[in-house]
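Lab manual, section 2.4: Encoding a predicted structure.

Procedure: take the sequence of the chain (557 residues), apply the prediction step described in section 2.3, and record the output as structure tokens. A sample record is shown.
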Amino acid sequence: MATTVQNPPPPPTKAKLPNVAKAGGIMMFSLALSRVLGLLRDTVMVSQFQAGLATDAYRIAFSIPDLLFMLIAGGGLSSAFIPVFSEFFHTEREEEAWDLFSVVVCVSSAIVLGLITIAWFAAPWVASYISEGKTHLVNGVEVPVGPGFISDVVMMSRIMLPAQFAFLIGSILLGTLYARHRFAAPGLAPNVYNFGIIGGAIAGPILGVGIFGMSWGALIGAVVGNLLIPIAVMIKLGSRFKVSFNTSIAGVDKFFKLLLPVILGFSLPSVCGLITTKFASMYGEGINTVLNLSNNLMQAPLGIFGHSLALAAFPVLAQFYAQERMDLYRDQVSRTLRTTIYLAFPAAAIMLSAAPQIVHVLYEYGKQAKEVETNHAIAVCLQVFSLGVVAWCVQPALMRGFFSIHKTFKPIILSTGMTALFIILCYANTVLNIGYIGLPVATNIAAILLAIILFFALEGDVGHLDRKGLLITLGRTAIASAAMGGFIFGVFKVVSIHHMSRLIAVLTFGFVLVLAAWVYFYITRAFKMPETEYLSRAMNRVNKKLRPIAEVEAHSE
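Recorded output:
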């Protein structure tokens, strides 16, 4: 039975409420750029090294740093830190907020450095375990990979391990900026990171280090984007830090209580990629890369819409909870979910209806039989992954809904349960010999179930959300997305971009997507969906800015 939270009268302060729409726009642009750069990163990797054993080794090498990120809670650091920091910072206890920040950074740094050292020495064992069953073609025969493959995995992992310090401690630094409603600077972090990897992929062959250049680029990009830039911005804003391990100060115990369930649990979003990498290693050469590339494409809308809107809403939700405004809290969660669904559904439709064209534009650089087969596999996996896009996109907002009210135990327990189910499905896929295509199917099942369970569990803690509005949004966006997807599929049935030059293919593909976006927009506007008003207002602002320029040009003529 849902618990109804009483809404107290508004607090006496007349502080201006945060502009979540503006923050969401900033984060959406930043993360959209990050995802574009992420796709460009994959495109450069495929063009430089092709999808094969070297790229499989690079993908598996990420498993060891990812494992460390998972063990120390990764994004859970900021999710546990922001609500406590916000509680102090937005209730006139700023000095205590910075004391908390100092202790959390110092204690976390000591823990992370210790774990990096352990992971460094454990890298050979972890690499062997994850690569177990990996084969490659030799004279037409599948044979197990040799020690050279494991050695490459270990070396690349060790290069990237120090980057985890930048990610983990950087998440705390960025947390202070999110809590202060500063979103532009944090948006740079993933973009700088991707630039580093792209630069490493280009420079690697030139410098004679091959795909190892991508590992060095990841390290440099992580340090610059997640440590140096946030530190510079924090100094400019007058942030305060001092070396302190005094865990008895106010807020530290609450921080670790919020963090503990995240560390002990195994959140599905955090470990899904790691588990998929392990099971994908049981298949042939290039399969790790195929699943990674298709998963990265599926993750694009998750980053652009899901994470951006959740990150923008998170500090605001924490502030509403600290100020005991649960009416505003529930309204904000509902609006964030509706907007996320509105944006995620058409993204899924594009992937389902235009997967071959997406793969052709991004990854098709050769016409050999192996490359054609690989690209077909990526397209099929992308179509399967697309069926879970909406579920993945709403999860960040739901998870942060819990974190903002200082509850991390319940969502992590639920997510850990879904992770266990996901592992069982992956094992069943192997036993039944379904093939690697069963891995994205298992991912979708777990993701959809988790999204549904998280929604009802959150309602149990904060009261009923806008169920009617969410169902209406789901229904109308599903209809509009189906029409949009049908339009895209029909156009590409008539117009094939596979025999065009790359530039013409890219331009044609982009033009079709623009037309499809207008189809979706006009259908949803005919449904009088409130989400269309955001785009209309944005276009009106652009027109107002462009009108004076046009008038000046007309006058000069």
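Check your result against the sample. The chain is about 80% helix and 0% strand.
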